[in-house]
Design a protein that fits this description.
Length: 105
C-alpha cells in the first residue's frame, strides 16, 4: 500500500507543479479560459486526493490494529512510513487549495 501511496503522491506533486506553471502563464497573459480549466483540474485533483487520503487512513488504522495485537516491529515501521506519506499528501492538498484560492475567475 505504501509504495502505491508514495507513487500517487509523487504524481500528485508533479501534476500540481504543472498546474502552477500553467496558471502563471495564464495569469500573465490574462487567459481566463485557461484559468477556468486549471480551476476545474484543481477541483478534480482535490476530490481524488481526498479519496487517496481516506484509503491511506484505512490502511493505517488496519495496520495499527494488527500492530497492537501482535507487537510486530516491521508493521510498526510500515505504519510510520504510511503516516509520513499521508503527511506528504496532506501538504500537497494544501498546495492545491492555495492554487485554487489564487484563481479568481
Amino acid at each position: 500500500m505504501n509504495s502505491k501511496a508514495v507513487a500517487y503522491n509523487r504524481s500528485l506533486s508533479q501534476r500540481i507543479r504543472e498546474l502552477e506553471g500553467r496558471y502563471s502563464r495564464a495569469k500573465a497573459s490574462g487567459d481566463t479560459g485557461e484559468m477556468r480549466k486549471i480551476k476545474q483540474a484543481v477541483v478534480v485533483m482535490q476530490t481524488e486526493s481526498r479519496k487517496e487520503v481516506q484509503r491511506v487512513d484505512v490502511e493505517i488504522k488496519d495496520q495499527t490494529t494488527v500492530v497492537s495485537e501482535t507487537g510486530s516491529s516491521s508493521l510498526r515501521s510500515r505504519v510510520s512510513e504510511l503516516r509520513s506519506t499521508r503527511s506528504s499528501i496532506s501538504s500537497n492538498q494544501e498546495r492545491l487549495a492555495d492554487l485554487g484560492n489564487q484563481i479568481d475567475v
